[in-house]
Specification:
The protein is mainly alpha-helical and 155 residues long. The protein has a domain at 3-20 and 30-118. It has helices at residues 6-20, 33-51, 56-76, 85-118, 149-153. Helix 1 (6-20) runs antiparallel to helix 2 and helix 2 (33-51) runs antiparallel to helix 3. The longest helix is centred in the middle third of the chain and has 34 residues, at 85-118. The chain starts with 5 loop residues before the first helix and ends with a helix.
Amino acid sequence: MSMRSVPVAALTVLALVMLLSPASATPSGPEHADKVVHAVLFAALAAASRYALLTPRITVLWLAAFAVITEILQGVLPIGRHGSVWDLCADMVGVALGLSAQSAIMRSRMTARDTSRYCSRTPSTGSSNAGSPPASTNFSNTPANDGSRSSLVSR
C-alpha cells in the first residue's frame, strides 16, 4: 500500500464506524444534521481517493457502491438504524463536492506553479527572467523588427 492510500483507508474505517454504529451510540443533533455529516464524510473520501491517484470515474464508482452497501447494512443489521435514500443522495452530493474541491485545488496549484516558473530567478545568472518567455521559444515566424510597417501589416 502506498503512502497516498493511507488517508483513504483511514477515512473508510472511520466511515464504517460512524455509519454502522448502533443508533444509541450516535449523538443526536438538529434535524437533517446527519445529511451534512454524510456529505462531509463522502467529500473527504472523494478528495482522499483523488489524492491516492484514483481516477474521478473510479472514485465515483467505488463511493457509490460504498454508499449503497452502507445504507443496505444500516437497514438489515440489528443496530437500530435504517437505510435512507436521502442519506444516499447526501453521500453522492458529498462525492461531487469533494471531487470539485480537489479539482479546484489542483488547478490553482498548477496555475501557481506555472506562474512561479516564469517569475523565478535563474540560478546561473541570478537575474530575474520575469516576463520573458522560456528559452526554448522559437521566434522564427515573427516579423522582423526593422521598423517597417510592411512586415507588421502582412500578418
